[in-house]
Every structure is written in C-alpha cells, then in structure tokens.
Amino acid sequence: PPSQFPYHCMLLSLLRRQQCAAWLTKTKQLLAGGCSTPPARSPSSSSSRACWSSSTPARSSSSTSHKQASAMSPAPAVQHPHLVFWERTPPFAAYATAKLAACSLDVRSEVKGTKDTLHLAFSSGERLMGLPLILRYIVRAGTCGLSSGLYASDALSSTQVDFWLDYVCQNVVPGSGLEAVLQSINDYLTFRSFLVGHATTAADVALWGQLQGNPLWKKLKTSGKYPHLSRWFDYYAELPECKTAAEELVAMDSKKQKEAAAAAAQAVAAANAAPGTFVKKATADAGGSFDVGLPNAEMGKVVTRFPPEPSGFLHIGHAKAALLNQHFAEMYKGCLLVRFDDTNPSKEKDEYVDNIIKDVKDLGLTFEKVTYTSDYFPQLLDMGERLIKAGVLYADDTPVEQMREERLNRVESKCRGRSVAENLAAWEEMKKGSETGVNHALRFKFDMKSVNGCLRDPVAFRCNPTHHWRTGLKFKVYPTYDFACPFVDAYEGVTHALRTSEYKDREDQYYWVLKEMQKVWPGLPHVNMWDYSRLNFVNTVLSKRKLTWFVDTGRVDGWADPRMPTVQGILRRGLRIEALKEFILQQGASRNVTFQEWDKIWSINKRLIDPVCPRHTAVENRARVPVRLTNGPSETEVVVIPRHKKYEPAGKKALLRSSQIWLDQNDAKELHDGEEFTLMDWGNAIVKSITKDPSGVVTSMDVALHLEGDVKKTKWKLTWLAQSDELVDLCLLDFDYLVTKKKIEEEDDFMALVNPHTRFETAAQGDTNMRTLQKGDVLQLERKGYFIVDEPLTKPGKPMVLFNIPDGRTKNMTAPKQSGA
C-alpha cells in the first residue's frame, strides 16, 4: 500500500531509467549508421498497462520497448497530437496536465469506444496508449512541463512519480477494491499535501483525474471516511488548470450531445405535434431535456425494449425506464418491445406479470408486442452449448461463497482449466438437474485479473429445480441476466438497450458476451448500449428486495399500498399519470445521479388537479365544537352552490344552513369573544360567548350572524357543517415515509431506519354531497387539503375512506397535516 512505499519497485524503476538513457544513446548511434531496426532490450515491467502502437511497417518484437523508451526522452517535434477518448470517460488528468505543462493538444471524443479508449495520435500514424504513458509525454512535450516540476527535480522523486502514475491508473478505478485503495491513499496523505515532494507533480494530477471521473468517489467523499484525501481533492478541484479542464471537457460533451441530437430534432417536433403522445422537448425552465441523440440510430429502424423482471410490481424508477424507452422509440419512429425477464423461477409469479401489464397500460405505453425471455430458453441452451464447445464457458462446482471470494481476490477457479468434454458432461448433468448438476454453475472464461469485477468469470447458467411460472418443470437450468440479455436483445432485433448508469461497469461485459455469441451464432446483430441516471427519491427505497421485505413483513398492505413508491401505490395515493409523465420529462435524459424531493412531483400534480377537482367540507370528530347561531334560520335551509367556483363542469352541490353547526376544535380555539369571522359560503358572524373546559378545550360557542359584514376584513375564514343526520362518515388517512433517513447509504443498517409510524387516521364527517363520490374521485376538502376516494360508501356504518394527496408545499411527501386555520 502507498503508506508503506515499495522502495524495491522504485529502485527497479530508477535502474530502468538509467538503462534507458544508455540504451537510447546507443540506439541513436545505430540509427545514424543506417540501422532500421533498434536493438533488442529486456521486456518492460509487466505491470505497465500503457503501450505504443504504430501504423508504420512491421518491426521486430522489440519495437514496443523502443517506443516506450523513446517516450522517456524529450519528445520529437510533432505538433499538436490528437488526444482521443471515449465520450463517456473524459481524460481529466491528461487535459489538466497539458494545461499545467503548456502542451498543445487537439482533443477529440469518440461515440464508439470503451473505457480503454484513450490514446495520443500523431500525424505520423504512431500512437501512445494508456494514461501513464500519455502523461509522461505531455510533461516532456510541454514548453514548461519539466521546468515546472511536474516530473519532480531529481531521479528518486521522478521515480516516485512513475510509481504513482502506474499505481493510480491501475487501482483508482471502479470496483469492489476501490474503497480499500482510497483508504490507503487517505492514510498516506495524513501529513502530506502532495503525493511526491512538496509541490504538484503529474502524480497528483493523475489521481485528481481518476477521482474526478469516478462517480463512486462523489458518494464516498461525503461519507467522511477519507478526510485527508477529501481535503487533498478539494485543493486540486479548485486549482485553476484542473477546474478549467473539467469545465471545458464537460462543456465539450454537452456540445457534442447537442450536435448529435440535431438530426433527431425534427422527429421530436413531429412527435410533439401528434396528439396524446409523450415525446416533447423539455424547456430549460423544466430542468431537463431529452434532446439527445442515440448512437448509431437510424430513423425508422430504432427498436428499444422495456425488460421488467416479474418479481414484484413496477416502481417509479421503472416508470422512468419505460417512458424513456418509449420516448426514443417514438423519437426515431421505431418501436418498443415489452419483454419479461423471467429467468429466475424462485422469485417470479404470474400475479406480478398481470400487475406489470396493468401498470404498463396505466402508463400509456404503446408497444409492438409483449415477449418473455422464457420464449427463448431452447435457443439460450443451444447458445450455451455452442459457447462451451468454443471454450468460452466452463462448468464450475466451486461453492458459492468460495466463488465470490475468489472473484473478489482475482483468483482463478480450480475448474477453469477443464476440457471441453468435461464441461459438456457437466452441462448435461445440469440440464437434467441431477445431484451432480445442481452443484455446478456455468461460467464465462473472461479475465479473472480484470480491474472490472464484472469481467471476472461471471456466472452464465445456474441450476434451479423450482417450478417456473410459465414453463413448469421442463427446464432445470436457467440463464443469468448477464447471459440472456445480450442474446435476446440481439435475437429480437433490439438496436438500443437502455440501462441506468449504476450498471455502467457491466457495459464491457455486455459487449464482450455479445461479441463471443456473434462468433458462434452467425448473423446475430449488434446492440448499442446507452445509459441514463437512475431515478432516486429522498426517504425512499427502490430496491425490489427491500420493497418485498416491507410487503412480506406486513409493514404495508401489499405492493399497491399508498406508502409504497410503486406505480400502483403512487397512483392510488392520488398522483395523476400526466403528472408522473411531466415529472419524468423534466428530468430529461441526464446521466447525473441525483436524489429528488417528492415535493416537486406533488406540486406538478396539484397544478393539474386544483383547477378541476370539486370542493367539499369536512369537520373532524375529535373534540368538534357545537356552535349555536343566535339569529340563525329557524329551519334548515338548502342553497345550491357550485362545487368549484372557477370550473363549471364540476357541477353543483347542496349547502345546508341551520342554527346549529359544527366547527373544528382547532378553529374554535383561534376565536375570541366579540371577534368577527367568516363562515365560508355563508357570511360573517360575531362571537358572543365561548365555553371551555378546565384544560382549555372549547366545548361550545354562541355566535350571531353579521351577513352585512365585509368578508375581506376578517382574519379567519372557517369551514363548517350544519348539524344533520345526513352527514357522511369519513376516515381520513395520511401517511409518512417508510424510512426515516433522506439518503440511505450502502453501509447503513436498513432495519434501524424503518419508520415505525407511517399511517395516521382521523375520523371526520363530510357534507351530504359526498355520498355520490366513487372510488378514484379526487376532491379538495377545503382548508384540509386534497384527497382521493379509496373506499366509497358501500355499507351502512362503514365510513368512506379518503387518502390525503400531498400538495408539494413542504419538503415532506407525507408529513401528516393538522387541521386548522
């Protein structure tokens, strides 16, 4: 670890530098004498990931070493090399180092590429590949690179810089070992401001760049685990050259996205013009935009897919995925497929399939067809056998925990070297579901040394004797998602597979699997991956495993409980589909991971329901106050008034007036003797007397109508109900978050964050007009909020159940409201 610096490695590097200098002198002499092939030298360290490539005629095997050695000396006079990178992995370190060293570079991003797409291209056709080698060149090529101290000032310090360049680029990468690496660097920086010496070097810039481009670092930085590394990072984040480099690369990516979207802009406008379609371009005020172009998309040929797993109901995150897939299908005049990923019979139920189809229809998706991964089980088994014969898959009976530990530590399985015949024999046992077969898994033979844990021989098939909801007991072995998804995507003709950015590490795996499949299945087409940010909300879990736990433990009343973030749950709570679509549209196709407040989506919802929903009145039963109107009507009066004063289609309602009325306790407490107030939809009244019990609770009031009074001058405008046997019994329900912490971290004890009190019930009575309300009707109980009817009046003695609909006025989606002024 860096805290115990490996001086033996530094010594080897130092000796190598001295050898390079002598070797370079000899090489120049030989070349001057007409020798076209440089002399051989010992191979460079196997730990180096960087290399040199050339488009010049073939050379001897020592050519690579020759070029690497040349890079250690002053750079040749090649003007403005091209720094080429994948558009999704900006070269922060290289670009910032170029600014610090005053090295002129032309920067170009590529749409097609991988995380390893980073090289420096020269006009001669030669390339420097790998970040360490590129940084070494930039420092030497810059007009002030060496003089600025970016490579330190002495051989030992320069060797330390070399070590850090290799160490950082190889180890500060996404993966399970990242946190341990960061902890070591944090410890190393406890009493240091710089990685090497007492000034900024290329090593510091390399580390800053790796962290700047790592989404996980942004999360880990706020955890408080790495105070010294965070302090160090903040310094470099504000260093002018680093800050400018980051801003320019981000702006460059944004500009390229806009250019890529230009070809699709006309399609977006045309789709907007079509009635009832959810494909419009968000404005800047809306906070996001879908005005981006998919790579390699052709008008009329784009096929997207929405692939839910039937192991639960759809939640709001799935809704974003579904609507985003539909958006791009419509944007390019293509089609959308809905495919159930039913490869795990232990978790899947036909109940989930039925409800997902209901959710898809509720979301208004227009799709070409519904398919199932189980439709392709025979083809998937065939593909498995082909890949075994090609040496890509091997059977492994390593216990699960041991396999997990070996993958973590990059240790190859003892079964990795099995012959094709042995693997085929084990595969036959797996298909039978025999005792031998169920102890095996089929694994990809990829790269157990890869820094990307997803490439360390992931599992492709597992045995599972469980009854499959669709195929019964016909199959005993099932493909994993990692195996099935690339094949079925390509087999169904999907052109663009959209995935949330949390699975970005799996993109390399997806393409690798697809490439191996294409070798043994001729004609299998290419699929483009495209990632977007996952939709996260504060105080909300969207993990299907955790949501299932809430259901199974009875903490909620099923997947459609209004406290659940499922599509059915939030619609039952009173969210309009139009509000959900508009909210997701405002998020745009951004890849920035954020945690959204619920108030925003509920504010949109309020804007949609407030102009049209009817108004009604309710008084809570608890300590309600009987009020006598000393000059009220001698008999009950009926007055017909609008249900919504500004929306005539809401209809009319009957208002009962009598000399005996009810007020809410909280309202009555605000009034004083002699005070004038307004009875809504009637007129002003003046308090004559108030009776209270010893605890201060108002028990009765006498008031006198003062209808000639000015309602604009009163402080209190109160709702009320005439005392009548015709009032409707109500059960008003309000809800709180299921978890108490805004943002749940992976290391949090989830059970300790579960909110024990999330359901709040209030008994009340409503006006007689509410008898006609039906399930799903939305209304406003004046001065109490918006509600949706969950259970209408059906049986005598059973109250109507209303769910409170949040209005977005507070940051809490579900904070229980108190009635009052």
How many H/I helices? 23
| Fraction of residues in β-strands | 15-25%
How many strand elements? 32
Low-confidence runs: 1-17, 30-50, 54-78, 263-287, 811-821
User: What is the helical fraction, as a range of percent?
Assistant: 25-40%
What spatial form do the alpha-carbon principal axes imply?
A: globular
- Tell me about the biggest sheet? 7 strands, mixed
Strand order in the largest sheet: 17-30-31-32-28-29-18
**What Rg, in angstroms, do the CA atoms define?**
34 Å
Mean pLDDT level: 84
Structural class: alpha/beta
**How far apart, in Å, are the first and last alpha carbons?**
64 Å
How would you portray this structure in words?
By secondary structure, the chain is of the alpha/beta class. Helices cover 35% and strands 18% of the residues. The strands form eight sheets. It has a seven-stranded mixed beta sheet with strand order 17-30-31-32-28-29-18. Strands 26-23-24-25-19-22-27 form a seven-stranded mixed beta sheet. Strands 1-5-4-2-3 form a five-stranded mixed beta sheet. Helix 6 crosses helix 9 (227-237). Mean pLDDT is 84; it is low at 1-17, 30-50, 54-78, 263-287 and 811-821.
